[in-house]
What does this fold into?
Amino acid sequence: MRRLFFLIWLFPFVVNAQEFRKCPAFDQEEKWETIESFRKNEADVVNLMEWIVATPPTEQLVERSAASIFVMEWATKNPNYTFKVELAPYQQLLINEDLMLAYVIGNIHYAVKHMNKLNADAQRLAGLKALLFQVEHSESLSKDKLFKHLLKANRKGKLNEFDKESVMNQNTSDLLENNQVK
It folds into this structure.
């Protein structure tokens, strides 16, 4: 009887516990000295990007930091690729390092996976989805008024519309600023 009571008591904790997969293995000592080192590590980088954007910022902090550094070094030093990440529409949402990294890495991940048929809107949306995952998995950010409209758009299945509206508002804002200068 005690065991049954204990199992019933423990069940809600087990059901609510989310386990995220372990950080994929990678060579933390890589110096990026040859073009071949970038090609050799590309599969690891893709795996790390997938892991980073699908793991909450509070999980595996040391591994997450090392993985982020590895990915960003690969992306910024890579002679084979040049990545363009559009920050302007969501600059006000990128309020900390975790959100900035999620957005940037989400963009880069899309760019690497779709190098032959790159779509700037889809790339920006991939970054937004990575940022959204981080917000949803943060107790404080998910309650922050700054993210209210983003979370609402996602709940209603209108993330594409939210993205297009954000870009349009940014473009309008840029035009107004340029006209005020003249």
